[in-house]
Request: fold
Amino acid sequence: MTRIAYVNGRFCLHAQAVVHIEDRGFQFGDGVYEVWSVRRSRLLDADGHFDRLDRSLAELRIAAPRSRRALGLIIRELIRRNRVRDGLVYLQVTRGQARRDHPFPPESTPPTLVVTAKRVDLSAAAKRAETGIAVISVPDRRWSRCDIKTVNLLPNVLAKQEARESGAFEAWQVDSSGHVTEGSSTNAWIVTADGKLVTRPADNAILHGITRATLMRVAAEAGFGLEERAFTIKEAQAAREAFVTSATSFVTPVVEIDGRTIGNGRPGSIATALRQAYLETA
Ligand code: PDD
Reply:
């Protein structure tokens, strides 16, 4: 099937979609992005991701490329043209194309807008949820504004690659005080012996995950206690359960951290129930 992308006002063949070599996203990583999961041709947590996009743009003083309504129409059209039932939408906005110079370009420079949609076979993610994933720990080498969803993902890329080379699926980043911040592309959670959910507060050290926020609501409605606090790898290794959340993995149980088995080495019942509850709600 021919894939279609959207670039700066036009739908075009994905294979031929291009941005300029002097785009600030390419030269400086001067841009932000969002990822929505699509299920049954519908965006999950649509408003949460739009709200975070607005916030990321505002924090970096990049002009919104289109109204939310217009972006919604573009995304819907892209889902339709690519016949995506289950998949992902990726949207990126950069500070635009300008002669290479570090300060912001003139205000008249239009931001660059790229949107793509792709089909994803959900069975691979479902299988991972059934077996659980292994995680390794790595030092967090990122900057102090990880709450902004920028395209500056080099430390995340290196962390994920390290995980894959160690046979793990995700890397949990650890700050200088020995506490887990988050995964390279997921938020990190543990379950205490008495069944409380623990996840790091949404400070500047982590991305304020939309799945994380929805799951907090879902968990509260289901009667789970929640502690928003940082935890160490040692505490996670001794936890009753551990799991990650993101738009692409929903809720995925963690069964091994740095080679140590979590619980009985099988996905925990709480993480599995929360995954189900999330998918029914989002
Ligand atoms: N990643 N932390 C980081 C560093 C992330 O990149 C992501 C998402 C999350 C989870 O956020 P959310 O629940 O809003 O998806 C946490 C996306 C999926 C990506 O980069 O592909």
